[in-house]
Specification:
The chain contains 14 helices and 13 strands. The protein is α/β, with parallel strands linked by helices. It folds into 2 domains: 179 residues, Rossmann fold (3-Layer(aba) Sandwich), CATH 3.40.50; 118 residues, Helicase, Ruva Protein, domain 3 (Orthogonal Bundle). The protein has a 5-stranded parallel beta sheet with strand order 3-6-9-1-10. Strand 4 and strand 5 form a beta hairpin. Helix 1 crosses helix 2, helix 9 packs across helix 11 and helix 12 packs antiparallel against helix 14. The longest helix is centred in the last third of the chain and has 27 residues.
Length: 347
């Protein structure tokens, strides 16, 4: 890489980091004590993936998405999922229109709320599988086909779905194949004592924080293009592959608890998600190369919803995050052992 190319790349990395930080700070004017969650949501936006937010009611999932939409100069749509919601209610439908002058009639497609840059799918597990499938097909294809006509969605296109993990009555949990469409599954944690105090101060007073749009469509697409260009060292790519392999119980490298509690490991899409997120994290940190720490940080949100537990794992309430911690530790130990062996041979 020439000096001019290096300087241009450094300039683009600095712009990326400044935009990422500015957007995060704007969101945190309203969302308190969820810095890691905000980081992960912005990472998915830039990486071009979608997010599933899981948490009990009242933790600010919907508020986070609304605040994100306000901080972006992008179109926003909110869909409240209910058992009686039909695919046409979110995709749109074809209607007959009449020209008053000529009296002729024609078919016209009326776009549904899915046609927006940022879409909030609130309580997605309350809709029937038929409606869920319509949404998730759009997430994958970024297009809607009605009859013989295909309607492309404007980029960037970002779906944030929420679900309540406690209330199961009247819900239709997302099947594993559909969960795989989400780049990240993020767990919304209960805020700390200090964060609760700040939340009360900001929400019970007469003045509410006003969010200023700081990021537009062109900026998001430029950030996405730069993140895609970030090089991945061979040892980092190999680490991602070995992590993915270790989530499969039949693989020789998988830890004992994976063999015991996991029925199916993560899909190749999980490895892609890890690398996409790691690339964004690297540039957001001012680096134009992916490190092992970037991958380790992305592993749990990218893979936790892709592990399918067996009967024993479900019965004992085993958490996917605990299993992934063991996978990451086992891979790290293997790397260290190889390094020590190499040093011993050279000595």
């Amino acid at each position: 890489m020439s000096d001019d190319q290096t300087k241009d790349t450094e300039k683009r990395v600095d712009e990326f980091r400044a935009r990422f930080t500015r957007t995060k700070k704007e969101i945190e004017r309203r969302i308190v004590g969820q810095g890691t969650l905000v980081d992960d949501v912005l990472t998915c936006l830039v990486a071009g993936g979608h997010v599933l937010l899981e948490g009990v009611p009242g933790l600010g999932k919907t508020m986070l998405v609304r605040t994100l939409a306000e901080a972006l100069r992008l179109s926003f749509s909110r869909i409240q999922f209910t058992p009686d919601l039909m695919p046409a209610d979110i995709l749109g439908t074809t209607v007959i229109t009449e020209n008053k002058g000529s009296g002729t009639r024609a078919l016209e497609f009326r776009k549904g709320p899915i046609f927006a840059n940022v879409v909030l799918a609130d309580e997605v597990n309350r809709a029937t599988p038929k409606t869920q499938s319509a949404l998730l097909e759009v997430m994958q294809e970024h297009a809607v086909t009605i009859g013989n006509e295909t309607h492309r969605l404007e980029q960037p296109y970002f779906v944030l779905a929420t679900q309540n993990p406690l209330e199961m009555e009247g819900t239709y949990p997302l099947p594993e194949a559909q969960l795989d469409r989400f780049l990240f599954k993020l767990e919304v944690k209960f805020p700390s004592h200090e964060a609760l105090g700040a939340i009360l101060d900001r929400t019970t007073g007469s003045e509410q924080p006003v969010i200023t749009p700081v990021l537009g469509k062109d900026e998001v697409l430029a950030m996405r293009a730069l993140a895609r260009d970030v090089p991945v060292p061979a040892h980092v790519k190999d680490f991602v592959i070995r992590v993915l392999e270790a989530t499969h119980p039949e693989h020789p490298s998988s830890p004992e608890r994976i063999k015991r509690f996991v029925r199916f490991g993560a899909s190749p899409r999980g490895a892609q998600s890890c690398l996409f997120a790691a690339k964004v994290a690297a540039v957001a940190d001012g680096r134009f190369s992916v490190s092992l720490d970037d991958v380790r940080r992305a592993a749990k949100p990218a893979l936790r919803h892709r592990l399918i537990l067996g009967f024993e794992g479900e019965a004992e309430g085993v958490r996917a995050d605990a299993l992934l911690d063991e996978v990451l530790a086992s891979i790290s130990d293997v790397s260290a052992a190889k390094g020590n062996t190499s040093k011993a041979k050279s000595a």
